[in-house]
Amino acid sequence: MNETLVTVVGNVATTPVFRELASGPVARFRLAVTARYYDAVQNVWADGHTNFFTVWAKRSLGSNVQGSLAIGEPVIVQGRLKVRDEERGGQHWTSADIDAITIGHDLSRGTSAFRRVLKANTALTEPAGAREPERGPQREPEPEPVG
């Protein structure tokens, strides 16, 4: 099945909401994407229409979103686009969701400090013999006495 993969550049519009579900952690937030265009008549850059997407981040990506993103921050989101039509309370709703594969700060508009997530102790999860045995500190041999 073909999926619609998109890469979208915009700003975090809502505080990320984090939930721990039976299927694993998930975070969601709204992303505002505003087109910019050059208005040659007024000789200025202007804002065009703003599109809003609901971004869904699952598993470790969802956990990392919780501790990394805040309202107004510029981000780049890549993921699967899903457009949903539904009826609620007699009203017709259309929403555009992105099932995120990756999310990062837009470094063309600011700086960011990366913090690696500590993984669980791999010695407990790796099969026996998969790791090389640890060796103590290595010293150079002492030189032979002369004479």
From TrEMBL:
Keywords, alphabetical: DNA-binding
GO molecular function, one term: DNA binding
Signal peptide: none
Compositionally biased intervals (Basic and acidic residues): 129-147
Coiled coil: none
Family annotation (InterPro entries): NA-bd_OB-fold, Primosome_PriB/ssb, ssDNA-bd
The UniProt record lists the keyword DNA-binding: yes
TM annotation in the entry: none
Keyword Iron in annotation: no
PROSITE patterns: SSB
Region named Disordered: 123-147
SUPFAM superfamilies in the record: Nucleic acid-binding proteins
Name of the protein this chain belongs to: Single-stranded DNA-binding protein
Organism, as annotated: Streptomyces longisporoflavus
